[in-house]
Write a structure and sequence with these properties.
By secondary structure, the protein is of the alpha/beta class. The chain has six helices and twelve strands. Helices cover 35% and strands 26% of the residues. The strands form two sheets. It has a nine-stranded mixed sheet with strand order 6-5-4-7-8-9-10-11-12. Strands 1-3-2 form a three-stranded mixed sheet, with helices on one face. Strand 9 and strand 10 form a beta hairpin. The longest helix has 32 residues. The termini are far apart.
Length: 261
């Protein structure tokens, strides 16, 4: 076969292949345009339970409207993501569709690191100090700081604290929590964090009767260092239970108060 004929045949085959691919592409695109949403698939990027699959379904029904039976290419995926991300317990949402008629929604929930409780009122904070409400049926397994919390907020508040003192105080407690988390001894040893009126923190330690007053949440490494010195040097020289409180809130001081005074 002459070279010219070979090239002509090859060119014809290439052209036929391209035409076939173009037809197939148009067919697929047409099918995609005609595909409708048959179901919703909800998944979660974490193990938290602030938001359930049913919550997502009900929220979309109430705020987005009809999506089942709608064409896939008509679904407003960005709107769905933005709507769900307005919920305080949601940090990120991704929505996409697949050719089998499924609307997929993946939700990442906000991870609390502390819970603050003042009587019947409480709230969570994440590592950045973002405040969000407690959940009516789910309690996150995080440390609790309770007592006279110097942060007054509406029950459904979400966001950073508006009041400068409250924002600084929460930031100080978070910094203390981070410091404690780096020490196995403190992490195991501190059993309770209580807040007195005025925002002073009081610690209870495992196996000890004393209350340790650290004051405002500042200079925590230094204050815990003084508690360490009390336990190692002062307490062994006295009978067990001799002191009621150990106050380290004042700079360079360890003030011990006896139980009977």
């Amino acid at each position: 076969m002459k070279a010219a004929v070979k090239y002509s045949v090859a060119g014809a085959l290439v052209a036929l292949f391209c035409a076939g691919m173009f037809f197939l592409y148009r067919q697929v695109r047409q099918e995609q345009r005609e595909a409708v949403c048959g179901r919703l698939d909800v998944s979660f990027a974490d193990s938290l339970r602030f938001v359930s699959e049913q919550d997502v379904r009900e929220y979309l029904d109430a705020h987005y409207g009809t999506y089942i039976g709608e064409r896939l290419d008509s679904l407003q995926l960005a709107r769905i993501e933005q709507m769900l991300e307005t919920r305080s317990a949601v940090t990120r949402c991704q929505a996409w569709t697949s050719d089998d008629g499924v609307l997929h929604v993946e939700v990442a929930q906000r991870a609390p690191v502390l819970r603050f409780q003042d009587g019947n009122h409480g709230f969570y904070v994440d590592a950045e100090g973002f405040i969000f409400p407690l959940h009516p049926t789910y309690t996150a397994p995080v440390p609790v700081v309770d007592g006279a919390i110097p942060v007054k907020l509406p029950a459904d508040y979400k966001g950073q604290a508006d009041d400068p003192y409250a924002r600084t105080w929460i930031g100080g407690v978070l910094a203390m929590h981070r410091f404690i988390s780096t020490s196995r001894n403190w992490q195991r040893g501190i059993t309770h964090i209580k807040v007195r009126p005025g925002g002073d923190l009081v610690l209870s330690l495992r196996g000890r009767d004393e209350l340790f007053v650290v004051g405002q949440p500042e200079n925590i490494p230094d204050k815990l260092g003084r508690i360490d010195r009390y336990i190692g040097l002062i307490a062994p020289s006295k009978p067990e239970g001799y002191y009621k409180t150990v106050n380290v809130k004042y700079n360079q001081q360890i003030i011990c108060r006896q139980k009977d005074t």
